[in-house]
Amino acid sequence: MSGEEERFKLVVVGGGGVGKSALTIQFIQSYFVSDYDPTIEDSYTKICTVDGKETRLDSKSPSRWIMSSHCLSECGVMREQYMRSGEGFLLVFALNDLGSYHEVQKFHTQILRVKDRDDFPMVLVGNKADLEQQRVISREDAQAFTREHRIHYMEASAKNRYNVDEAFLQLVQIIRRFQEIESPPPQSHHSGKQKRGGCPCVLL
Ligand code: GDP
Ligand code: MG
Predict the structure, then answer these.
(1) Contact 175, 142 (CB under 8 A)
(2) Which pLDDT does position 61 carry in this prediction?
(3) Domain for residue 189, yes or no?
(4) Within a domain: residue 164?
(5) Mind listing the pLDDT tens digit for each residue in 92-127?
(6) Which atom of ligand 1 is nearest to the CA of 92?
(7) pLDDT tens digits, residue range 158-175?
(8) Which of 24, 37, 117, 162 could form a Cys-Cys staple with 157, CB 3.0–4.6 A?
(9) Nearby residues of 1 by Cβ (< 8 Å), 6 or more positions away
């Protein structure tokens, strides 16, 4: 038993330049980075309260090198390790970049393959919503994809801090619900209120 603290491993995936670092840093540190070293792997921790429960979020984003779709064997293995360890994924594309939309769909497929499941906690995030004039993927397109695959869709802007916290917190709620269904708490005849899994997880 590792204490009462709830803890989740989130992985932020998507093509290069879609705003994975910017979203993560906006969420954790509340500022917008306009220029960030693309080779650095992001790894951050934040404690926040979700549905009244203190939760520790370990958020990682693989470096661009690992995520590159041109990358051959070794990074394929590293990418799979990320995917295996993640308990939930933010799938990020940029609303003004069609290639990134296709790429994120490949990540979706790969995650399900690595997890060997039909469903896994994921939220699709269309980032750079502030660049509305440059948009090339419609909300309807993205929603059709997420409906088909039973995941959530949100549009966000790391620049304007729009839907940034919401995307991460939505994912936490989905992970929590998923894990409760996957591994129900030991039968306690619904007695103790604060038992693990006792939270009534209302999903927004
Ligand atoms: P990553 O490679 O996915 O980690 O992407 P970065 O976070 O490094 O962002 C790539 C570029 O897009 C940077 O110049 C960011 O400042 C910019 N960027 C990230 N998010 C947004 C956003 O929401 N709106 C706008 N306009 N630019 C963004
Ligand atoms: Mg980055």
Answers:
(1) no
(2) 80
(3) no
(4) yes
(5) 999 999 999 999 999 999 999 999 999 999 999 999
(6) 3
(7) 999 999 999 999 999 999
(8) 162
(9) none
Average pLDDT for 185-203: 47
Measured torsion, CA atoms of residues 119, 121, 127, 130, in degrees rounded to the nearest 10: 110
Q: Which of 131, 79, 124, 76 is nearest to 104 (CA)?
A: 124
The order of strands in the sheet holding 152-155 is 42-50, 53-61, 6-14, 88-94, 122-127, 152-155
Beta-strand pair 53-61/42-50: antiparallel
Cα separation values, 175 from 38, 87, 91, 108, Å: 28, 7, 14, 16
- For residue 61, being part of any structural domain is answered with yes
Q: Is the CB of 60 under 6 A from ligand 1?
A: no
Q: How far apart are CA 25 and CA 164, in angstroms?
A: 10
Residues less than 5 Å from ion ligand 2, measured at CB: 20-21
- Measured in angstroms, how far is the CA atom of residue 161 from the centroid of ligand 1? 12
Are residues 125 and 89 in contact, defined by beta-carbon separation less than 8 angstroms?
Answer: no
95 within domain boundaries: yes
Range of the domain at 57: 12-180+198-203
Domain with residue 146: its CATH number is: 3.40.50.300
Provide the domain count of the chain. 1
